[in-house]
Amino acid sequence: MPVIVKAKDLTKKFGEFTAVNQISFSINEGECFGFLGPNGAGKTTTIRMIHCVSPKTEGELNVAGMAAHVDNREIKKQIGVIPQEINLDTDLTVYENLFLTATFFDIDKKTANQRIQNLLEFVELKAKLNKKIDELSTGMKRRLQIARALINQPKLIIADEPTTGLDPQARHLIWQRLRELKRQGTTLILTTQYMEEAEQLCDQIVVMYQGKIIKAGKPSVLIKEEIGSEVAEIEIDRSQDQKILSALQGVACNHERVGDILYLYCQDGHEILKRLVEMDLPKVLHRPASLEDLFLKLTGRGLVE
Fold first, then answer.
1. pLDDT tens string 137-173
2. I need a surface site. Which of 22, 27, 51, 190 has the fewest CB within 10 A?
3. What angle do CA 285, 161, 70 make, to 5 degrees?
4. Within its chain, how far is the Cα of 158 from the centroid?
5. Where are the beta strands (DSSP E) in the chain?
6. What is the DSSP letter of 132?
7. What is the mean pLDDT of the chain?
8. Least confident interval from 26-35, 56-65, 245-254
9. Parallel, antiparallel, or unpaired: how do β-strands 79-82 and 156-160 relate?
10. Dihedral (CA of 143, 148, 149, 152) sign
11. Residue 118: CB partners within 8 Å, gap ≥ 6?
12. How far is residue 191's CA from residue 199's CA, in Å, rounded to a whole number?
């Protein structure tokens, strides 16, 4: 597939602080590409450079075949942004918010009105056309921001933690809309703190930590390579670890102790589960390995300030 975004040794510094440190990646047209990492990892800084609102310090960055820089209006015309914060104009109605955005792109009134009707139907807000923003729920505001990001019919959508603060129903509805956009051929760049969201939407991910990319690839492949297929969580005192691990000798698995939980990572959990049942341990959870397991293994389980 054609590449729509390509970075080589991309670097962003704020004085002496390096927020993004010589990262390289490429994003193909029509895929959903996820930037994952703890707070302060450099995710938002990276997408601000892609969106041409923050200048790079060093390296190369090309978007839609053009060099990305803050004065490149041609790139901005081809991008739609769903920001993390809700920044709708509360003095305007739903319709007026969308129409105002259309004027920024020099879209004529007739075309703008048609697009607004279609987009409000797409995000299930047609009945709210003349409502003020304060009359909308948080989920409705998030959906309106999706509609606003699509008003210029962009080739590339940047979604910066688009479901923050939403209940499960609203989150799943937004996932449906983002998947539909991908099916229509739109390229998506996603940053998120929800690992389930990344698993649901992303074709490729990079995991960032302290400004660097520490792992990149397809989520399912990375999970299998780094974690395995299955995980057993055993809530037990650490004094019992050696006894449990001795009982699992001969079974291929890795382990990790975190607080009061012993984690076992394996490709085939059948034999491990059989032996754990034989040991009659009080609190054992057996489940498929997830992207959250991968994320925590790569970035650590402690809080990053």
1. 999 999 999 999 999 999 999 999 999 888 888 889 9
2. 22
3. 145
4. 10
5. 3-14, 17-28, 32-36, 58-63, 66-67, 79-82, 156-160, 187-191, 204-209, 212-217, 230-235, 253-258, 261-266, 284-288
6. B
7. 92
8. 245-254
9. parallel
10. positive
11. none
12. 12
Q: In what order do the strands lie in the sheet with 204-209?
A: 79-82, 156-160, 187-191, 32-36, 204-209, 212-217
Which residues make Cβ contacts (< 8 Å) with residue 285, sequence separation at least 6?
Answer: 232, 233
Task: Describe the strand order of the beta sheet including 58-63 as a list of residue ranges.
Answer: 17-28, 3-14, 58-63, 66-67
Instruction: Say if CB 143 and CB 174 are below 8 A apart.
Output: yes
Distance between CA atoms of residues 296 and 293, nearest Å: 5
Q: Report all structural domains of the chain as residue ranges with CATH numbers, in order of start.
A: 3-218 (3.40.50.300), 228-288 (3.30.70.860)
> CA–CA separation, 178 vs 184, rounded Å?
10
pLDDT at position 302 is: 57
Q: Are 225 and 214 in contact (CB under 8 A)?
A: no
Instruction: Give pLDDT tens digits for 224-267.
Output: 999 999 999 999 999 999 999 998 888 878 888 988 999 999 88
Rounded distance between C-alpha atoms, residue 41 and residue 81, angstroms: 20
3-state helix, strand, coil split of the chain in percent (to 5) is 40, 30, 35
pTM equals: 0.89
Query: What six digits make up the tokens of 269?
Result: 């959990």
Tell me the three state secondary structure of residue 298: helix
| DSSP secondary structure of 238-270 | GGGHHHHHHHTTTS-EEEEEETTEEEEEES-HH
Residues 6+ apart with CB under 8 A from 62: 5, 6, 7, 68
CA 139, chain centre distance (Å)? 18
Under the banding of pLDDT at 50, 70 and 90, the label for residue 271 is confident
